[in-house]
Amino acid sequence: MPQKISPRKIKIDQQDIPFSEGQSIMEAAEQAGVYIPHLCHKAGYKAHGSCRLCTVKASGRWVSACTEPAEVGLQVENNSSELQSQRRAIVQLLFAEGNHHCPFCEKSGNCQLQAVAYSLDMHDAHFAHQFPHRTLDASHPEVLLDRDRCIQCELCVRASKEHDKKNVFALSGRGPHTQLIVNSESGKLKDSEIEKDDEAIKVCPTGALMNRSKPFSVPIGQRQFDNIPIDQQSTGKSGNNEAQP
Ligand code: FES
Question: Of 18, 43, 192, 226, which is most buried, counting CB atoms within 10 Å of its CB?
Fold first, then answer.
């Protein structure tokens, strides 16, 4: 009689979470509908491990859930006040480092950075705003690149390369001088291969890359995160438009 193989499991906040060989903690959590805050991770993309928002404590070690493989017996702490406060500080730093003006941003209500800030109970940026000088590329009739809103998660870089097969974007520079650059002779979007329906535009978690051809097509109040907080939306399945957590 064939032996029944019991599923491999980790524990996240005391809850048994099954996983398959090769899955990360994040993938196992998403499959089970457990939310771990994240910005640079997206299902279907290689883990990047850059934003560190998904940091969890796994059997006593700090690890990023999107890059750490799930292993039998791993005890993961995710929703503790210590972790939530560290994550809040990471998001506050992102707001202080960039020029994010939510009330004026077309992505408001669909923006993962804004939604994560709300879910982490962030009330202010806490750190001094740096007001970096960043340029805007409005050269393309249908696509806008606003570097003020870019959090350098490289999702557009990966999407353009792996999904759109175009390689339109890259990050260039170091530290505070890092910025998203466009692969074209002029360095402008208008001379690149970008098109408004490219995955690279849809995957942007903030308003850094926007399709200009349908502004405000979903009214404020009816957007993805307007009524249901990001942490209460079942991972990867919710939403009423392009922005998916
Ligand atoms: Fe894991 Fe960004 S989501 S490091």
Answer: 192
